């Protein structure tokens, strides 16, 4: 097991033990979950100051989740940094060239760099097994409701649209003129809610997740922090990196993860789904929805 996976396991352990932590330990854990790279480069005093808690709080938190102390807790994070996570050696030089290209070159480089980092960080923290488990629950469910508001409403609808080319049980919510809570009125343990929101977290999404859990639904959550109420209350939680130089959270990794999740659903589905996709596109051709390419 590589060091990046080990540090991910440590973060998962923090979320699993969240309810058992004291309020002060939760403050320390929240800082770790939202700033994991700081753990590898900070002393216990430095990270405690950043998290606005006492150094002993970090020591107690580390012991509560099974470590001898902060240094033991910190070790996998230090190893991950030392080994490095950059995948493409030439990327830095390419980005520097873009940054020097002109007045808008710096912004262009920042946007491109953020998009690439978001993809790498997102998929670097998600295992094949976790995606397969979520996809299997989705495939075995009766109805799937995908919830997003604001920019994530379009992401949820795009996911639902793609799924509908082969499956009938996907629904994007809130439906026009409705609310997410009303749309889930008759959902139960046979159904799945896929919920998406990033900081600052939308109240209606958080409330819908709580309602879904009360009704016995399986929740798949996508959010930008392991400490997000979406992740903490999900059966299957996936952290997406959403950093951007702009004023809005980036959707790049959210869209990529949703596309990957859908591909896993197709992979665990029956042969009938492939036949439905073929019939769907054959019908489109027959109805003239695609422009014929010149011979």
From TrEMBL:
Keywords linked to the UniProt accession: DNA-binding, Transcription, Transcription regulation
Gene label: ybbH
Source lineage: Bacteria, Pseudomonadati, Pseudomonadota, Alphaproteobacteria, Rhodobacterales
Domain named SIS: residues: 134-271
GO-annotated molecular function: carbohydrate derivative binding; DNA binding; DNA-binding transcription factor activity
Short name of one Pfam family: SIS
Alphabetical list of PANTHER family matching this protein: GLUCOKINASE, RPIR-FAMILY TRANSCRIPTIONAL REGULATOR
Keyword DNA-binding recorded: yes
Ranges for domain HTH rpiR-type: 8-84
PROSITE patterns, per the entry: HTH_RPIR, SIS
Coiled-coil stretches noted in the UniProt entry, renumbered to this chain: none
Protein name: Putative HTH-type transcriptional regulator YbbH
GO terms classed as biological process: carbohydrate derivative metabolic process
